[in-house]
Here is the input.
Amino acid sequence: MKKIFKDNMYTVFAALLLLTFFGYSFFQSDNLEKSYQSVVIKSGDTVWDLASDYCSTIEDQTAFVHWVEDNNHFDVSSVEPGQEIVIPVKKSGTDGLMLADSE
Here is the structure.
């Protein structure tokens, strides 16, 4: 019995490692789905205005605008009042802005 366990110890360890990895990936995918929200553009709003509301630095604002363009498949200069767009949201805590991955 000890020999069987000893011979298969690396296999058992690899299987546990894979299960841990896939479990972590599963829970992370739930978090990614919640990493954005929809907003409706109001009259006079621009994507840059939204970026300045959610981001403190120009680098973050630029990343925000590019994310909106990539994930909504339009040029930010063509946004119109009443249009619903998806934007990244701030991550809670001190980590700052969390941009959702582009797909």
